[in-house]
Write a structure and sequence with these properties.
Blueprint lengths: L2 E2 L17 E6 L4 H11 L8 E6 L8 H4 L4 E4 L4 H11 L5 E5 L3 E3 L3 H11 L5 E9 L8 H10 L7 E4 L7 E5 H7 L14 H9 L5 E11 L9 H18 L4 H17 L10 H17 L19
Parallel strand pairs: 2-3, 2-5, 3-4, 7-10
Antiparallel strand pairs: 1-8, 5-9, 6-10, 7-9, 8-10
Keywords: Glycosyltransferase, Transferase
InterPro entries: Nucleotide-diphossugar_trans (IPR029044), TonB_box_CS (IPR010916)
GO molecular function, one term: glycosyltransferase activity
């Protein structure tokens, strides 16, 4: 249930809360232009991050970043969102908070300031996620100019709203690092490549140690760029394999997994005859079917998509 900030119970805090060290963390693959556009807009934040770290899977993923933004720490790791985010976590030894943004998420200028305000005011909170004004992942996607226009026109309606959330949305979520270090939390590398539902898995791990809040003042636009993501067949397989994997490890309920799987299967089947131009519905259906067969034969495993044929150049 949505509640305004004063309506949420607050725990006692010290008279003077120390300033938090906040890191901006970006994992990227195949989209250096997106990262450059994001870095330009991070420079406009009301509250600048203390650390900025970008992790690619190859030098080409991060081309030009160090030259244009020398303050950014650039690293590489094995490809895969979970692997790359874990590589970033390993680098953040002195920061208090990691703000994970997708390379195609454009934050409003007050995004980081809002994160800091909530986490300083509520030391019990372990994660926040923001308000996505427009989400291009649900269609063909947006360009940066569109995102800039949306943010410029934003009236800030419901800016003070804060509500409890089941999980962070992976394109924009801030994580308090103390419980991550204390309990050895990590993103699940069993979920390869685009790692669908890695945000839910990590959120439910950290939710054992405190609440997760959705903070409307942390606002932005998710472009939903389609390049650099996995093929339709691989995503379709992940739509079945990943929820079942999370149920088995205890970070997703049977009910939620069934909802996610049935919703995606229904969407893929109903739109297969007349698919959206930006979505490979046939590929997703084939991936769903392949996962169902593997479930029946006892071979279902999220990592099996690594052996599939097909392009990883488009998330369709």
């Amino acid at each position: 249930m949505r509640a305004s900030r004063p309506a949420i119970e607050r725990r006692a805090t010290a008279v003077s809360t120390p300033r938090l060290r906040i890191a901006l963390a970006v994992a990227t693959a195949g989209r250096p232009a997106c990262v450059l556009a994001l870095m330009e807009r991070i420079a406009r934040q009301v509250r600048s991050p203390d650390t900025v770290i970008v992790c690619g899977s190859a030098e080409t993923d991060v081309a030009g970043i160090a030259e244009r933004f020398p303050e950014v720490r650039v690293i590489t790791s094995r490809r895969g969102l979970a692997c790359q985010r874990n590589a970033i976590l390993a680098e953040l030894t002195t920061d208090d908070v990691a703000v994970f943004l997708d390379d195609d998420f454009i934050p409003g200028p007050g995004y980081i300031a809002a994160v800091e305000a909530v986490l300083r005011d509520r030391p019990d909170v372990v994660m926040t996620t923001g308000h996505v004004l427009r989400d291009g992942i649900r269609g063909p996607g947006f360009d940066v100019a569109f995102a800039d226009a949306v943010l410029a026109a934003d009236t800030g309606e419901d800016r003070d709203a804060i509500e409890e959330a089941y999980s962070g949305y992976g394109c924009n979520m801030a994580v308090r690092l103390a419980p991550v270090r204390r309990h050895g939390l990590a993103f699940d590398e069993t979920l390869p490549l685009y790692a669908w539902l890695e945000d839910v898995d990590f959120s439910r791990q950290i939710a054992r140690h405190g609440p997760i809040l959705k903070v409307a003042a942390s606002r932005g636009v998710h472009l939903g760029i389609k390049s650099g993501r996995q093929s339709g067949v691989k995503l379709g397989y992940s739509q079945i394999a990943n929820p079942i994997h999370l149920v088995r490890k205890g970070t997703c309920s049977h009910r939620k997994a069934l909802f996610l799987m049935s919703r995606n299967i229904a969407a893929n089947l109903s739109r297969c005859a007349r698919p959206e131009p930006s979505v490979d519905r046939l590929g997703r259906c084939l991936g769903n079917l392949r996962a169902a067969l593997d479930l029946i034969t006892g071979r279902l495993d999220p990592t099996r998509i690594l052996a599939f044929d097909g392009s990883e150049g488009a998330h369709r």
